Structure formats: C-alpha cells, structure tokens
Amino acid sequence: MNTTRTGRIRAGIGLGGLSLGAMLLAGTPMQAAPALPTPLITAGMERVVDDPPPDFVPSESDYVVNHEAMETPRGVVGQRTVLVVTGRWTGGSNINPTTVRNTTIADSATSLRGYLGAVSQGKLNLSGDLVADVDFGTKPQTCSTSTVRDKAVAQARAQGYDRANYDYLFVAMPYLGSCNWGGIAQSPGSWAMSNGTPSLSLWVHEFGHNLGFGHGSTFVNCPSNGSEVSAPVNCATKQNGDYGDPMLGGGSKEYPANYRLQAGWLTEDKAKLVARSGMYRLSTLGTDGTQLLMLARSQGWPRLTLEYRQPSAYDTFSPDDNRVRGVWARYSDMARTTTKNKQLDGTPETGTTQDPTLTQGKILVDEEAHARIEICSVDRTGAIVAVAVGNDSPAYCPGDFLIGEASSGSGSALTHVRWYADVAPGTKLRIGDEVTLTGMADFRRSIGTLKNSAFLDGLPAGLEATQVSGGLAWDSTGKYWRHDAGPGQYLYQVVVRVGADAPTQWAPRFKVQGYSQPDWRTMSSPYQVGAADFLIGEASSGSGSALTHVRWYADVAPGAKLRIGDEVTLTGMADFRRSIGTLKNSAFLDGLPAGLEAIHVSRALAWSSTGKYWRHDAGPGQYLYRVVVRVGADAPSQWAPRFKVQGYSQPDWRTMSSPYQIGADDGTPHPEDAADKSSLPSRKTP
Ligand SMILES: [Zn+2]
Description:
The protein has seven helices and 45 strands. The protein has 686 residues and is mainly beta. Strands 7, 9, 10, 12, 13, 14, 15 and 16 form an eight-stranded mixed β-sheet that branches. Strands 1-5-6-4-2-3 form a six-stranded mixed β-sheet, with helices on both faces. It has a five-stranded mixed β-sheet with strand order 8-17-18-19-11, with no helix packed on it.
C-alpha cells in the first residue's frame, strides 16, 4: 500500500530546533526509515513522566463541539494541508518526531495521509509540514488545550511556519497526566491533538471528528430467529462496539461508506437512496459502483445504511471473518452537524459485536421503516440485496432459477448477461400469477464506439409487464426493452403478470450485444398456463360499448368434488374501460354461505356496508381480485358463487358455474386417503 508521490510533501523541519533525528529524517522514504537514536534528555534536568502506552482508546469527551458549524463539512477533497507541531515540556523529552511524521504526513500506509488517500479513493491529498523539537514551556498543572495550541502556533511561527497557511493544525503534545484524554479534536473543525506519542488510529479518530463524525453505539440483543433479525425496535444499546468504524472502537479500520459520502469522497452515483422495492447491487467498499445503499426512515434514525467490505491494508480482517462476508448495516444520522452511526449487530445470538454483518440468506426486518432486506448473495466484488419497502411483498432474490445466459464475445467475454426467474422453468402458473425476471449484466468493457447493450424481447398478448426496472427502456420500435451502457454491472427486473389471453406456454427471448453481436436466445420457459384454470363466470355491464367486463376463474373444475378443509381459489379479472359521468365501475362478489370461510380476500375487494358482499369501486383500468375459500364442516353440498359488475347498465347478480360439490357419499376413496393408507405402518394386533 506504499505509494510514491515524490515531491508532493513539503517535508519541512523547524530550522531553529533542528535535531540530529530530524536531520536523518529529511527526505528519507518512510518505508526505509532508519532507527533513530533515543531522544536526548538534557543532563541535570528532571525527566517528565513517560508516555502512556501507544494503544489509543478514545474517551467520551475527546472532542470539542464547534457550535459555529451549521453542518458537517462536505467536499473535503483535493489538496489539504496540515501543520504538525511536536516537542517537549521544558526539561522533558521530545515526542519522537519520527513517530509523529510516520503517523501524520509521511508518504506511507502508516500515516493519516496514506490512510486518507486510500479511503477517499484518491480524492483527498493531505500533506503538510512537521515542526519538531518545540519547547512547550513548563509542564502545566492543569489541562488547557488552547494554551498548548497557542504555544504550538507561536513556536511554529517563530520557526517560519504560519498556521494561517494551513487548513489543519495537529499538535502532538508531550504527555500531560492532567488531561483525561489520549487525543482531542474540534468537531467539525480544524485542529486535533494527541496527549503523548500518537498512533495512526488516534489521528484517524480525531481527524474523523474534524470531519464531523461523532461517537456512536451498537444495537445489540435484537429479536432474531437465526435467519431473520428485527431492528431497531426492542433492541438494546451498547456503546461503541463497531470494529469497522474508527469513531466507535474500530482503530484504524476504514471509514464507513456513509462517512465518505458526508466528506464528499463518494459521488452521488456511488451512493444510492433506495426508494423502491427491488434488487440492488452493493459493490465492495473502495471499488467502482454503488458502495452505499441508504433507506430513508421517518422515525428515529433518519437513515439505514448498508455497505460491504473486503480485506484491505487497513481492514485487516481474515478472509473468513464475518466482517468481510456480509452486509454491514448501520443506523445513521447524516443530517446534523455531527454524522453519527449506530451499528446493527446482525448476529445478536452470539453475544459479541465482532460479527455484525448480515451474511447470505439473512434477512433484516425494520418494521418501523416498513423495510425488509434480504442478502441474496455475496462474493469478492460485492453483494446483491433484495429490498422491499412500504407495503410491498418481499422482493425475491435472484439465483433460484437460472433460465438463460449469454456472452457476447468469444474468448474475451466482453459482456455477459444472466436471467433468473423466481419460479421454476415450466411451472404451471394461473391467470393473475406473476413471474419476476431478474437480469444481471456484467459489461466488462466497451471497444471503440461499440456499446454494450442488453435486450429483452417484448411480451405476447395476454402477458402484462407490471414493473420494468429503470435500466431497461422501451425501444423506439416498440418491440423490445433495451439498455445501452458502459462498463459496469447492472441489474434488471421485469415483473410479468399472466392474463386471461396468455399463450399456454411462454419462453422469453433476450440478447446481449457487445463485440460480436449474438442473436436472440430463448430462455427456459418460465411457465405453462396451468390446466386447472377454469372460466366459471363472465359479465359485461354495457351492451355494445362494453364499458366494463369481469371474468372469474377457479382453480378447480366446475363440479369438482371437494372435501372438508379443501380450498378453492377464485380469481377475478376486471377490465373497466371507462367511467361515464358520475357512474362508477364496480365489481361485486356475493358473500359466503355458512360453512364456507374466506381465508384470503385481495385488498381491492372491500366488505360492503351491508355486510352481504365484497365490492370494488374503481376508475378505468384493469384489476385483479382473488378470494380463497375453504370448505368447512357445515358447508352446503353444493355452492355456486354469484357476482355482478356495475357500470353503465347495472346488470343483475349472475351465478357462476358451481365450483364444487362435497363428495363425501360417492364411495370413491379420495386420492389423498389412498396415499395416507398406503403410508401407514403396519401394526400388530395384540
Ligand atoms: Zn472521539
């Protein structure tokens, strides 16, 4: 991780206090820094108290709130400079200037400069000057940070370094026991101090305060059944505990993605606010692509933020560590002067927060935010998450059924597309059912003016696309959906509903177009229309004008023999072409006789005020209704539901074909009975 940026650092050393150690340092590459002589102690002077051990433990009160700041700094990018001042109390020993340089402005991975270059992905270039061997005066009895800073600034100016010429001031103060902190900083702000010999993790933490990052905590003991975690309601709180956040005990691990957005290092295209249900790709932190997914929350924490990490020079996790195998979830406040995080412990059952991420197959349910997040898959490049928001039903993860795959280039694999369905190929679907197709395009590169393109063939009559992801646009020919794109990874989603006029089989077609422009390919057929769809009733309201039209289907043949406990699903499809004046379109379904129980009624149908039927009033459009009826012990021996549609001409109630008879007395064993009997173990009679 050592980078060589020769000439970018102004490696100035205070002229007035030039020491032997400092001379050896000047111009020496940090990765080959020579061992320094022990700092000199002036003979005859009392030696001051030794430094505390270098392990940096931030204290709760280690930052000073900058009340003049209106918001966290954004756009901390480009060249920024820091004046670093260190030295000794009068008669004491110097803080080792090599350590100060190596942890601040040295051109190496051990410095804050190296750290910021990495976590900002090259967007922030921190350099500066080190003024060493400063005499901070007689060791004071009390802790006054401003007095020490004033001294540092004055001493630096005396040596030719004007603090006003720098964006930041870092003071590596000789150890002072009366200060109850190891480091302190202004937040948001422009100064930071260490109390004794500093470490990289100290500067990472304190500079985080300069950027407006605050202290946080972790949600622990959240309700969980092992695969599903519910948060944040009914979780407990533990201070710190986030070992991937330097502000919460994470040492010099990388700053989380939401901090990077706040600092201006993650551009908008790499941070996505999830407002709609669907599948989202989360790229590994520090790579190209979307590195931060955010969900807006209206209660409590304003954001839920998701990121995914892999081992790096700073994220020194072993490859099998939970923290590089799953999606890291945090509740975040990114709207105020101080950015704050509260980590979610995604494995509350283990009792440690060292395994916080949601690994493949895990589900986070945030009822307060009406959000459900399922981790579909993870690999080294990122994670796929299925997000459902609002009252949407759970989004499906892809990968259950691969139904088509194509590469455009021979050998070079320029572009690659895979399509998944959420039902098995050949599944028997019924009218009203939906199939979700998920396409995953991996466009490795473009060549010259040739663009990568993904195409999905249009739909035959009777199939309706109820959702098409933003990436796919309807082609000008009106025959297919298309997406032209540069190199990158893309997700497509198309939800297809089976209508009454659907063909009995359907196999979608697609192609990917890159270097070699392959032909259309046929995917595995995702469905067949099930044989058990029976039209049992139909009505139009208008003569001639066909203003409104409703058809009802059952999933058992009319007259089928059902038994107690069996279920019949009725599916209604209303086609309300238009309304006339104040007359509304309405669909009605008669109520149930005693002994029949509706165990599912679709939301569109509401129980009428008379309590006698279900009703749906609606404007022009196509609507789907579903009612699942279970046969109870008191059911009539036959049942034929009734319905009507009301539009222009208000027709009467009509009776559908009887969907069932109770078949108790025909003497024929029910197939399930036969199966039950054959599977019974033989039993000896006494
Ligand atoms: Zn702190």
